[in-house]
Design a protein that fits this description.
The chain is mainly alpha-helical and 302 residues long. The chain has helices at residues 3-25, 48-63, 78-114, 124-132, 135-149, 161-171, 173-189, 194-201, 206-224, 226-244, 249-257, 271-299; strands spanning 30-36, 39-45, 259-260, 264-265. α3 packs across α10 (226-244), α3 runs parallel beside α12 (271-299) and α4 (124-132) packs across α7.
Length: 302
């Protein structure tokens, strides 16, 4: 499939998914509270007329008023809330991508090297152990350990570069294991290939063969997995931001939903912020997908 066709196809799928999410978000959620005896009963207005009115109002706000609507805070519009939250999270996501890719590749090389020795348990076995555990469980253990045994780390700080770096490190833990597993498997798959035997016959050292030939060949496999790496980061972002009270996009998105176990959607529901942050996440995933397609075209042009 041609690169342009792949990019247009992913664009169409992303836009379709975004429209579906937008329609779900704009579905009427007006609460009617009535008292029946000693019990408060919550009912919702789900009329089609209200649904159409919500869609028209949102489109008018976006295209005529250049606004995403209201925010729960009088001093901040929905657009300002989205911009501030996405700015905080984009820094974390970008750093986490770099950390996950670099440290994951390094861990994969170490796993591959140790697999040839009796210290294999320190390499691939540790990667397998962390990869076999759910990502949320790993995050909970690491966060508990930091709070309990490393009091010098300002775990709950929400300002300064330390807060951003700590959030990025936490969300990159599982991606590091994921990339390490791919790297070691890719290196092992190349063993015995003709071009490596030829390079060794020319007198190249094992280190030069590893970094100049094998690792370069593995870059295609790793770059193709960038969308999966981003999905892992985004899936862990809410847990890290929520427990650290970090004012990022995932935390703000959860706050805008205003969900509680008693009545579902609350009165501080903010559809404009939900749609705005979802749109930004969609653009981010789409951009990474396009980079992955370009990398696949470069490393595997067939």
């Amino acid at each position: 499939m041609r690169l342009r066709t792949q990019m247009l196809r992913s664009l169409g799928i992303s836009l379709l998914a975004f429209v579906v999410v937008m329609l779900i978000v704009l579905f009427p959620r007006h609460l009617d509270l009535t008292l029946e005896g000693y019990k408060v009963v919550v009912s919702y207005d789900t009329s089609m007329a209200g649904f159409v009115a919500n869609i028209k109002q949102f489109l008018a706000d976006v295209f005529l008023n250049h606004s995403l609507g209201y925010s729960r805070y009088a001093s901040e519009t929905a657009g300002e809330a989205v911009t501030r939250a996405m700015g905080n999270s984009l820094a974390v996501i970008g750093i986490a991508l770099v950390i996950g890719f670099i440290f994951g590749t390094s861990k994969g090389i170490v796993d591959y090297k140790l697999s040839k020795t009796r210290f294999n348990i320190l390499g691939k076995w540790t990667t397998w152990l962390f990869h076999s555990m759910p990502d949320f469980f790993v995050l909970l253990i690491v966060q508990f350990f930091i709070i309990k045994h490393l009091p010098f780390i300002r775990f709950f700080a929400v300002d300064g570069w330390q807060s951003m770096i700590l959030s990025a490190v936490l969300v990159s833990l599982y991606p590091i294991v994921f990339i390490a597993n791919l790297t070691s498997a890719s290196l092992e798959d190349q063993e015995g290939k003709l071009h490596l035997l030829f390079a060794k016959a020319k007198g190249l050292t094992n280190r030069m063969i590893l970094f100049k030939h094998m690792l370069r060949k593995s870059m295609g496999t790793l770059l193709i997995q960038l969308p999966t790496l981003l999905v892992y980061i985004l899936s862990n972002l809410l847990m890290v931001e929520f427990y650290r009270n970090y004012p990022g996009a995932a935390w703000r998105l959860y706050l805008a939903m205003d969900y509680n176990t008693y009545q579902g959607t609350g009165r501080n529901y903010e559809p404009g912020i939900i749609i705005g942050i979802t749109f930004c996440f969609m653009l981010l995933v789409l951009l990474v997908q396009w980079i992955s397609y370009a990398a696949r075209k470069y490393y595997d042009p067939v």
